[in-house]
Amino acid sequence: MAYEVRQRPNFSIVKYTFDQPGEQLVVEAAAMVAKDSAINMQTSMRGGLMGAAKRKLLGGESLFQNTFTASQAGETIWVAPSAEGDIISFDMDGSQAVMMSSGNYIASGPNIELDSQFQGLKGWTSGTSLFMLRASGTGPLFMGSYGGIHAVEVGPQGYIVDNFHIVGFTEGLNFQMETIGGIKSLLAGGEGRVCRFTGQGTVWISTRSSSALANFLHPYRPVKTNN
Fold first, then answer.
1. CA dihedral 137, 140, 141, 146 (to 10 degrees)
2. What integer best gives the mean pLDDT of the chain?
3. Residue 134 near residue 171 (C-beta atoms within 8 A)
4. Where are the domains of the chain?
5. Beta strands in 24-130 (DSSP E)
6. 2-208 has which fold?
7. Of 12, 147, 158, 194, which sits 20 to 30 A from 208 (CA to CA)?
8. Of 107, 120, 106, which is closest to residue 174 (Cα–Cα)?
9. How far is it, in rounded angstroms, from Cα 110 to Cα 57?
10. What distance in Å separates the CA atoms of residue 120 and residue 57, rounded to the nearest whole number?
């Protein structure tokens, strides 16, 4: 297989080229943009009913996923997330899993296993989900987010990320919910709830937050009045 991410960072899209007949790519529902007509598509609940329901209810992903199978070498498929933003890719070798915030999974090879993982009671107030999606195995993995995506290598001193800007992180990292600046910063300064990452690994952060955009647009929304 071969792939490239185009139109970064605002309107990213993946061009994926199959190397041989029978090669497959698993794609999140509605993420396929275009494909060669001879590529076969099969829709299924990967992992069975219980596994698919767990990802849907706990990880925020679609119940059904589409598996695209090449009929010959050189065929291409284009995939992209629903919202504008960036895409990053991984060539997973089975040595380390990647944790993703809800809704950030786009596509992967057939040997990548997806499962939801409980993040503990810290998820109640972190702004992230109680459950995150865990990707493990071998093959390509594509993850997207609203805004651009920036990688930070976490060292011995740790690293602090605003909770609404977490895209994903390597499984070797731990995170703890904290407040900074006290209640005044939380209520008046727009800051306060953050995640402190410790350990050794990588955390991917988004340059924009969809929740911040929603708050920005909220005062301008049309309001219906009763005459």
1. 170
2. 83
3. yes
4. 2-208
5. 24-28, 32-35, 40-44, 65-69, 76-79, 85-93, 98-100, 105-108, 112-118
6. Double-stranded beta-helix (3.60.160)
7. 158
8. 120
9. 22
10. 16
